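Narrative of accomplishments. A recurring question from our advisory board has been how the design workflow behaves on a single, concrete structure rather than in aggregate. To address it, we present the structure tokens for one chain from the evaluation set, followed by the sequence designed for it. No filtering or post-editing was applied between the two.
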């Protein structure tokens, strides 16, 4: 047998995955709500049963984060997500607008490609597989090379769980021969209909440049403003609970603290009391030298590490019980590395004179994570209004970024892919869910006859009275449809009544006697009861009943 280079083997393997995935997607497109829900429930069961094993594998393989927190991430991506999406309408008739006579019907996108980051290598697989199948899509994953083993295990478990519950074979797959060539091939595979990109800026940019529809997220760099009216103890408690969760690997976690001169001492004292260590200028330089490479690019060696691990590597001594390292900053940009995203247990710290300065600083900081998330701790409702105009898709008030931004403790949708809107080059500004993975087609009926539209348009008559009058006269002169000798014929030249679903079925004037028409409902009108019947029949038709 002829030997092939690894990249060629990986490309062929990806083509096979895409073809199998497309077959599965075509089959899954015919499933009904009950079948899909049964599959999702079994996926949740398997994910929860293996949450501990997957978390341990992820930490062992990547060196990022904490096992206990990754277990909870797997729980977020399975049980909590299921409760969030179980009642979402993603199949068949999802809406019927009787007034405007529009029936909205959901159709699956087809085969998805899911890009998996090394920071959340198993929870991302569970989450994306769940929302993909909820929308009746198959999915092929591209694991991060640094997390290929644990990601592969998560893919295998989710596919087995889905197939066991009735899903088609190969409905959830993943690249096993990882290479840049393989990932690029999958992005451009004709079978792939959409890409869900979660990862570094380069990978997300590549997804958007592939020519495929893509849902991508930008970097986060969330500032947390502790305004003068805030309860300082509670604010610090929430920030630390967020920043220390899985050692700061969630992109919505806080990156910089902003306080005011008037509460600076109280904020610093509270951080120290709750496990924050304020580094000296020299210590901060040592830590930054470890954390960043090529300016402000985060080194993967210290992503998701404990403060003890970072301090030891930097050669500095920190108190026992330290939960985060804090470095005071006096500007934003390359000269102040901690003004950038740090997916680990390190925070930047800023002091401003008033809320106006806090506002300007927040905007500066958000330029390095624009469109993502920011938080404010305050009891002043007017201050919340002032900060709601910041260029972030999630403005979190008196809560932690990691748990709040992902919807675990807020009213946001539970999600591990957080859109950044056009600010951050993202196609959505919401927490991504199954509602973003469907096509919606609409069955619509005419409300007004095409040749009567001007007569019905009062706004046109207001702005263009002469044209409206001329059009009405022209319509009246051509209204006869039965008696050529009559100026009006037997058809009324007035606009037809708009009631129910109306459509032209011809005049048929000569076939119907005046007595037969008396008290009869026009035969080109469907009333509300008939509309409901039509919708019911359509729904059953899509279910195959």
């Amino acid at each position: 047998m002829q030997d092939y280079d690894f990249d060629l083997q990986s490309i062929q393997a990806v083509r096979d995955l895409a073809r199998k995935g497309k077959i599965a997607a075509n089959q899954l497109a015919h499933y009904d709500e009950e079948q899909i829900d049964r599959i999702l429930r079994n996926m949740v069961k398997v994910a929860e049963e293996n949450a501990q094993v997957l978390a341990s594998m992820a930490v062992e393989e990547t060196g990022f984060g904490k096992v206990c927190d990754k277990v909870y991430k797997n729980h977020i991506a399975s049980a909590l997500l299921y409760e969030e999406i179980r009642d979402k309408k993603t199949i068949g008739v999802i809406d019927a607008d009787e007034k405007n006579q529009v029936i909205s019907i959901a159709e699956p996108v087809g085969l998805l490609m899911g890009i998996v980051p090394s920071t959340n290598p198993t929870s991302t697989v569970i989450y994306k597989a769940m929302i993909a199948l909820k929308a009746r899509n198959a999915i092929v994953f591209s694991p991060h090379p640094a997390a290929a083993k644990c990601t592969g295990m998560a893919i295998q478990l989710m596919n087995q769980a889905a197939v066991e519950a009735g899903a088609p074979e190969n409905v959830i797959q993943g690249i096993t021969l990882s290479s840049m060539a393989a990932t690029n091939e999958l992005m451009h595979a004709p079978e792939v209909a959409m890409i869900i990109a979660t990862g570094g800026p380069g990978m997300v940019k590549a997804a958007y440049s592939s020519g495929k529809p893509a849902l991508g997220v930008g970097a986060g760099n969330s500032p947390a403003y502790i305004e003068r009216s805030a309860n300082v103890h509670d604010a610090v408690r929430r920030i630390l609970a967020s920043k220390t969760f899985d050692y700061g690997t969630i992109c919505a976690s806080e990156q910089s603290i902003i306080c005011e001169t008037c509460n600076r001492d109280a904020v610093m004292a509270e951080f120290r009391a709750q496990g924050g260590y304020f580094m000296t200028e020299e210590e901060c330089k040592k830590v930054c030298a470890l954390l960043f490479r090529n300016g402000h690019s985060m080194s993967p060696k210290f992503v998701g590490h404990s403060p003890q691990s970072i301090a030891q590597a930097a050669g500095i001594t920190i108190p026992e019980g330290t939960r985060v390292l804090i470095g005071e900053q006096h500007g934003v940009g390359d000269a102040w590395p901690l003004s950038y995203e740090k997916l680990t247990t390190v925070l930047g710290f800023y002091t401003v004179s008033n809320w106006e300065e806090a506002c300007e600083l927040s905007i500066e900081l958000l330029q390095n994570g624009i469109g993502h998330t920011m938080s404010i701790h305050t009891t002043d409702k007017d201050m919340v209004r002032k900060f709601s105009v910041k260029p972030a898709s999630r403005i979190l008030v008196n809560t932690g970024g990691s748990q709040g931004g992902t919807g675990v403790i807020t009213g946001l949708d539970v999600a591990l892919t957080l859109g950044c809107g056009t600010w951050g080059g993202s196609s959505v500004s919401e927490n991504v869910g199954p509602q973003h993975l469907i096509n919606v087609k609409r069955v619509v009926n005419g409300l007004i006859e095409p040749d009567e539209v001007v007569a019905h348009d009062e706004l046109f008559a207001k702005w263009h009275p002469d044209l409206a009058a001329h059009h009405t006269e022209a319509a009246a002169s051509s209204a006869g449809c039965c008696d050529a000798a009559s100026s009006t014929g037997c058809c009324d030249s007035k606009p037809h009544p708009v009631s129910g679903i109306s459509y032209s079925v011809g005049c048929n004037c000569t076939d119907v006697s005046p007595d037969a028409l008396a008290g009869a409902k026009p035969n080109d009108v469907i009333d509300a009861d008939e509309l409901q019947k039509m919708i019911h029949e359509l729904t059953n038709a899509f279910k195959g009943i």
